[in-house]
Structure formats: C-alpha cells, structure tokens
Sequence to fold (139 residues):
Amino acid sequence: MTQSHPTTGAEPDVDCPVSLELLGHVYRADDYDLPYILEEIQPLLRARLAGYLYSKSHMHQLGLKVARSCERDDLIRAMGEIGSVIHGQASLKPAPVAVDPKAPPPPKKISLGGAQAKPPAKKISLGGSAAKGRNFDFD
Fold:
C-alpha cells in the first residue's frame, strides 16, 4: 500500500483576504503578539480577515479576537450586517466553559511534597454538669 504525499506547499484558500504567510503568523500568534501583527494590517483588510476566520469553525474564536481590533463600521463595510453581529459577539466576555455532568470527575491531585500537616485534634466533651470545662484531647 502506498501513500501519496503532496510535493508542493499548501494551496491558499481563494476566499482568504490575506496571504498564506500572514494567515500563518496570525494563526500562530499568542495573545501578546497578535495585537502587534494586526496593527500592521489595513483596517478594512483586517475586518475581512476577521470575517474569514469567524466563518471557519476551527478558527471562530480567532476571528472574534481579530474582530476586537476592528471598528464596527469597518466590519459592516467588509461583511455587511453580519459585521455588526460579529462586532457585538467580539465585545462580549467569553462564556465560561460548560462542565459536562456525565463527565468523570477530574483526577485527585497527588503531591510528592512529603507528609501533610496533621489536622487539629478533635475535642470531645462527655457532657453533663460535672464535665463542664473538661475536654479530652486525642492525639
């Protein structure tokens, strides 16, 4: 059984508004570097890039990050009324991660740091008037 491997680089998507190289830089950028990369892109082109990324299911969140760096009017000019929707979604705080109730609980943490501090001893009272003020400590 033989497998064929492409001998050329990736084919650029004809709908992508930026070069494959710039798309790669945006895709790989961390939260610190992304704003610096985006400020070098023309505002209308950046808005088109936000719409392109937003439309891809695996890059939806990145599209929202790019949209945060865009003006609402630029997003509307680039994509029409959906640009306004994207601007609104980009302005919202991210939703908390939903926890699946059927998922198993996370594993208990194991420490290799040595013995843990002993919890304070419980005091037991035998009750009654004769035992007032008398406690028996167990260690």
